[in-house]
Write a structure and sequence with these properties.
Helix content is 48%, strand content 8%. It contains 13 helices and 7 strands. A 3-stranded antiparallel β-sheet has the order 1-2-3. A two-stranded antiparallel sheet has the order 4-5. A two-stranded antiparallel sheet has the order 6-7. Helix 4 (112-118) packs across helix 5 (120-128).
């Protein structure tokens, strides 16, 4: 571990303080390192499998599962500890780890391309598995890539609706909806398809309301209009709850959705 840290430091990486590191892990993954004294913590807060990152607690370092061997001691066939001098390390191991930590912990946008090259699945996982939108460079790239054609609807659904970090419950991710409005409002063309898919899992009416409200704010009212005719039970439940305080949806229903 010390050689890894030294090699990163020699290549210009500055390790964050404990407070900064713990807060960033909490913000992204919903995991409180202060409540977990283990030296190595798996950063996966949902029941769904995801590309696995680990936090090296005392080193304030994120590391991919495939690179864990870099922090473990190695032994020869006689079970004797072997310590490879830093000057004999393969120098190619450092750039990916440095880029990953600079992008996720320091929010350095210049590291977006390297991380997309080394760990593209991690960038997808941040939105799909954790609904994390706190890094504008990542969020913009991932959301702008969603097609408004049929091949974009699964991604749209998995980004907007999923496990809520730190809560271990499924729900509509309102932070992702807001980011989608900013970076790719045309993607709300998938709203109708997502609503039909969600009915298989029967989430609370509020989830539908949050998605419809965002679609209306994107200038797409057709799906709300359709539900006012085809699913009066759902829309009346939303009306009964005053549209859950969602202003765009409340205004639309008042003016255009008969009881």
């Amino acid at each position: 571990m010390q050689n890894l840290k030294k090699g990163m430091h020699l290549r210009g990486y500055t390790f964050p303080d404990t407070t900064t590191f713990f807060k960033k892990v909490s913000d992204i993954f919903g995991i409180e390192l202060r409540n977990n004294p283990a030296p190595l913590i798996k950063l996966d807060s949902s029941p769904e499998p995801s590309p696995t990152l680990w936090a090296v607690r005392n080193a304030c370092l994120l590391i991919h599962q495939e690179e864990l061997s870099l922090i473990y001691p190695s032994y020869n066939d006689k079970h004797q500890l072997e310590v490879l001098p830093l000057e004999k390390w393969d120098t190619s191991v450092f750039p990916p780890i440095i880029a990953l930590n600079k992008l996720l912990i320091s929010a350095d946008p210049t590291q977006l391309k390297p991380v997309d090259h080394f760990y593209p699945e991690i960038l997808t996982s941040l939105l799909e598995d954790f609904g994390y939108t706190g890094n504008p460079a990542i969020t913009k790239m991932q959301l702008e890539a969603i097609s408004d054609m049929e091949d974009g609807r699964e991604t749209f659904k998995h980004y907007c609706y999923g496990w809520l970090a730190g809560k271990n419950v499924l729900g509509m991710r309102t932070n992702v909806l807001d980011a989608m409005l900013k970076y790719n409002p045309d993607a709300f063309i998938h709203t109708g398809w997502v609503i039909r898919e969600l009915k298989w899992s029967n989430p609370p009416a509020k989830a539908y309301a949050q998605l419809l409200d965002a679609a209306i704010r994107a200038g797409i009212t057709g799906f709300a209009e359709e539900l006012c005719t085809t699913d009066k039970k759902l829309m009346n439940e939303i009306r009964k709850n005053n549209a859950y305080g969602l202003e765009a949806l409340a205004a639309y229903m008042k003016n255009s959705c008969p009881r």
